[in-house]
Amino acid sequence: RMPPPLSALGLAFALAVGARGATTPPSLGARRAAHVQAHAKQCQDALALYPPTESARALGTTRVTTRAIATGGGGGDRGVPVGVLSTNEPVFSRDACEAVIAEAEAEAAAGGGWSTTRHSRHPAADVSLERLPRTRAWLSTELHGCLAPLLSTWFPALLPEPSALRVLDGFVVRYLWEAGQIELPTHRDGSLLTINIALNGDGAFDGGGTLVEHAAERAVAQTGGVIAHASAARHAGAPIRRGVRYILVAFCISAANVEHGRRFLEEGVALAAAGRLGEAEATLRAAIGDDPSLQAAHFNLGHVLRAKGQPSRARASYEAALSLDGGLGASRYQEAIIGLASVLPRAAAALAVAQRAVAADGASA
């Protein structure tokens, strides 16, 4: 079991690994250069879809206060905050939100319905903003004048310069009770920052909201409100119990941050899945070298080393993963403990960590 879903880049690498068979993948240096090129292309494409506009509305024109929902962890598995922040007041007007919903529903009706195939591991009923020109133009206006400064204030370590914000993928999501589309399971996003804009509310549905793992409560925004979190944080779309809920989601990156660690992690996962354990080990170590707080890389490296018959080295990787709070989530935290127990030399020590797994299971229930 490998934690992070593959981004488009990671999926392309996985397909290339499968196609190359037993041939050697490019060197780490060559892949690092490829990361830079891919990132530059992503940023170029993002600016073409969401160009800065002269009419961008400054955040200062809207009085916005925010609320942070803390989590039990001490940091994400990329060394980023794992909490979620939300606005207490609407940032966008009800009319603007209704216009987004109307365009999405019209496009879905004309184009064969709401797609459930764009995100294969965690399918949501959505419509890409590439199919919604009016919504895309509206978001371009709000992105650079309003949302980028807001995100830079909330997450200065991830986005120190607001002008570097780019939208990697944008889409409108619909949760519909009667169709059984009520929630989204716990997952991570393959980006740097994630924005949710609440498009409706006011009795249109019950339940819903964003739940970041280990958080004490759901984050729920009123119509026009914004919820944001680091994409590395494991989170879920909480289930609705009635009605229909619409949100606009934007997966964002920074033009100033290539994220070599995340990209090496995705490539390492693909190599491990292909059974190329030596190459997977080298790639996962490159991810850790770029970002030692990348918890999922330590976790996957432990799996690879255990499969290679190196229990002492696997133990060190599992222990490193467990020392980084807040990123794995309950189920994989337990899996890491079980992995650690399997490589401990003494049964008594194995029993002790297995008891920790039982305790973790009870705490997460």
Précis, in short:
This protein has 365 residues and is α+β, with helices and mostly antiparallel strands. The chain has helices at residues 8-20, 28-49, 94-110, 133-154, 260-273, 277-290, 295-307, 311-323, 330-343, 347-364, and strands at 66-69, 84-87, 126-128, 165-176, 184-187, 193-198, 205-207, 210-212, 226-230, 235-237, 240-254.
Q: What's the structural blueprint in terms of helices and strands?
A:
Layout: H1 8-20, H2 28-49, E1 66-69, E2 84-87, H3 94-110, E3 126-128, H4 133-154, E4 165-176, E5 184-187, E6 193-198, E7 205-207, E8 210-212, E9 226-230, E10 235-237, E11 240-254, H5 260-273, H6 277-290, H7 295-307, H8 311-323, H9 330-343, H10 347-364
Antiparallel strand pairs: 1-2, 2-9, 3-4, 4-11, 5-10, 6-9, 6-11, 7-11, 8-10
Helix pairs in contact: 1-5, 5-6, 5-7, 6-7, 7-8, 7-9, 8-9, 9-10
What does the model show?
- Strands 1, 2, 3, 4, 6, 7, 9 and 11 form an eight-stranded antiparallel sheet that branches. Strands 5-10-8 form a three-stranded antiparallel sheet, with no helix packed on it.
- Residues 1-6, 11-15 and 72-82 have low confidence and may be disordered.
- The longest helix has 22 residues, at 28-49.
- It has 365 residues and is α+β, with helices and mostly antiparallel strands.
- The chain has two domains: 8-25 and 259-364, Alpha Horseshoe (Serine Threonine Protein Phosphatase 5, Tetratricopeptide repeat), CATH 1.25.40.10; 50-254, q2cbj1_9rhob like domain (Jelly Rolls).
- The protein starts with 7 loop residues before the first helix and ends with a helix.
- The chain has helices at residues 8-20, 28-49, 94-110, 133-154, 260-273, 277-290, 295-307, 311-323, 330-343, 347-364, and strands spanning 66-69, 84-87, 126-128, 165-176, 184-187, 193-198, 205-207, 210-212, 226-230, 235-237, 240-254.
- Residues 163-254 form the Fe2OG dioxygenase domain.
- Residues 1-21 form the signal peptide.
- Keywords: Dioxygenase, Endoplasmic reticulum, Glycoprotein, Iron, Metal-binding, Oxidoreductase, Signal.
- InterPro entries: Oxoglu/Fe-dep_dioxygenase_dom, Pro_4_hyd_alph, TPR-like_helical_dom_sf, TPR_rpt.
- One of its GO terms (molecular function) is oxidoreductase activity, acting on paired donors, with incorporation or reduction of molecular oxygen.
